[in-house]
Amino acid sequence: MTTVIAGILMLGILVFVHELGHFWIAKLCGVKVLKFSLGFGPKLISRQWGETEYLICAIPLGGYVQMLGEGGGEHGEDAELTAEEKQRSFADKPVSRRLAIVSAGPIMNLLLPLIILPITFMVGVQMPAYIDQQPCIGYVVPESNAAGGGFVAGDCIISVNQQPVNNWNDTNKSFVNAAGDPLVFIVARDGEQLRLEIPSENNSLGGMQSLGLLPLQKAQIGGLADNMPAQKAGLTEGDLILEIGGQQVVSWYDLRSIIQSIGGKPMKVLVERAGELLTVELVPQRHNDEGDYLIGIAPLQVSETKRFGLFGAIREGAERTWELIDLTVVFVQKLFSGSVSAKNIGGPITVVQIAGQAVQTNLSAILSVLAFISIQLGILNLLPIPILDGGHILFYLIELVIRRPLSMRAREVAQQVGMAMLLLLMVLAFYNDIMRLWG
Questions:
Q1: Which of 186, 213, 305, 363 is the most exposed place for a label (fewest CB within 10 A)?
Q2: Please, are residues 157 and 168 in contact by the beta-carbon 8 Å criterion?
Q3: How far apart are alpha carbons 14 and 21 in whole angstroms?
Q4: pLDDT one-digit tens code per residue, 203-256
């Protein structure tokens, strides 16, 4: 429940920023704002300040700013207004001002990361140590996309689809542009360069690990489960496992297969601790009647915290903002071209989950997730779909070209089509969310 509440609060912040953009520019343009609402549906809280009613409503999936002379209804374009009211009517403002008001919401969402991401870089961003290292493979997951493409442990990636890569981060980013296409790798193996290909039907949007490519991970203990065999035998955090049952351990990924092969029999574990070798004996414990045998250890995750001064943080924040915008735009293009499966679309449940999980970590993670979702919300609203801001922007651009507004009837029909499209998109997003929960 805490995760859900935290997620809804983060979503509420982004909706507030979006609607604040509309509200602020409307005020600057002299338009009368009748309502400023967070959420839809029945009112939970309502307060009149000046000429505007401020509301919090029951369905926390968006919000709206209602302006005099906007749309239909008693205060819409066809309403009978006094001369004074006409001066403050949205419909009677020049098209350039209407464009500015409608664009302000998504633009605020796109600008928000420029404010909050520099804060994350000043506070400190914690990242896995391997992310900036050369993309050399420590383990290839059996029966994965990478295994089918011929990867083996020890391969070092030089390029992806003719794009040179220097580290794991570069490699992960290159997958977005290649989504829906075959992935062609040039890798270094035993002093030679090889060409490996993974077909277009792959999991590249999830990054290297989704393809089955994992970094080198030493078999070093980072955590111990209470009352499990490893803790009872006297193993401690920091121990480096060298052998189990006489079988050499090269990486963390060797442990599972070795332990399962031994099963529930006593086994000797050779570890290195503070430069000394130590042997302990333990018996793996079965998770359940049909589950794996476990000894109760977790790997040591080596990470590093990057911090920057004010100007460095602003530079890094701006670069990260542009990178997120670019990745999101490419994803949307690939989605509409059919290169990316619609299964990758996430809905409010996914957003709340991601936001709620971030709230349980640290300030940098919260702000990073807030920035990521804000950019997605901004770009989504710029799509030229009637009923979204992008649809209204399209109407006003057409008005600029033909020198007159589209008829109310044409806009109503377009908005009905847009509403149907949006509902279908929401149904698909909710379906994907539910399938991920039950998957």
A1: 305
A2: no
A3: 11
A4: 676 778 888 899 988 899 999 999 999 999 999 999 999 999 989 998 898 898
* 304 has catalytic annotation: no
For the chain, the structural domain boundaries read: 131-215, 221-299
| pLDDT tens digits, one per residue of 295-341 | 999 998 888 888 899 999 999 999 989 988 988 888 787 777 766 66
**Angle at CA of residue 434, ends 430 and 436, nearest 5°:** 115
DSSP 192-247: EEEEEEE-SSS-GGG-HHHHTEEE----BEEEE-TTSHHHHHT--TTPEEEEETTE
Q: What is the third-level CATH fold of 131-215?
A: Pdz3 Domain (2.30.42)
Instruction: Report the topology of domain 221-299.
Output: Pdz3 Domain (2.30.42)
Angle between helices 348-359 and 2-28 (to 10 degrees): 110
Residues 6+ apart with CB under 8 A from 438: none
Amino acid found at 272: E
Q: What sign does the CA torsion over 413, 414, 420, 422 have?
A: negative
pTM listed for this prediction: 0.76
